[in-house]
Amino acid sequence: MISDQQYADIAEMRARRPEALGEAARGRKRRDEFDDGRGLLFITADDPARANLQIGANPVALGDRKRLLERLLEALEHPVTSGIIATRDIVDELLLLGALHDKLVIGSMNRSGLMGSTWEVDDRFTGLDPAAIVDGNLDGGKMVLRIDWNDPGTNRAIEACAGAIAELARRKLVAIVEPLAVFQDGGRSRVANDPEYVIRALSVASGLGAVSAYTWLKVPVVRNMGQVLAATSMPVLIAGGDPGADGDEIVDRWRTLTRLPQVRGMVAGRNLLFPADGDMDRALAMVAGALDR
Q: What is the pLDDT of residue 189?
């Protein structure tokens, strides 16, 4: 739990000692290895920055920052959790709380594709850039690439992601790319989960950038995952979350996937932080089982 005084101290630090945030970043103890071979689990905390706040019936649940930070602290304390993917504001607050030592910290880079907006595909880089990732003592950057063959904003997004991948690689920092094939449905972008489209998106993302050595991919779990993952040799993180109270079948599927050579771990977000039954320890334990941790 975060006390009212701890939360007030964060607000006070932001207002009166903003330089303390940079000091906390520079003083963070980093992991010796990015991939230690034990199966990675990243927790995502970058949805608020693109106005994606809903949990269940509450449309603004993630808008409660203190509650979100409390859940993140709890998840980061679990031994299965390797690190976090977040925007700089959340990273700074976790740094002030001393929660990120020996964890992998990935900065979220493009957040302008606001959920439900008409420009969602044209997701510009409004978060961390490669220079800020270096200055902030972070371990890499994450970007989303929405691919819609009928939206010209896709071409701008591809070009921007290619440039960011190359700039991170030149600094020997990991770029986690989340390619999503999307289509328009009633004026909104929807993610296409057909394996053919996922394979197309992975193929595009794998070829981006002047340097490929530090590119990782975040991949949704769809049908025919063996065929899907055969599209790339890049290190892959599969999307996970809370498998549910009766999720043994899902956990078994995850476990099968994590034994493939490309799959280096999982990424989970709000469904893990805020499971339907409220029991995050159970959800984390099930993910740990899928990772054989």
A: 84
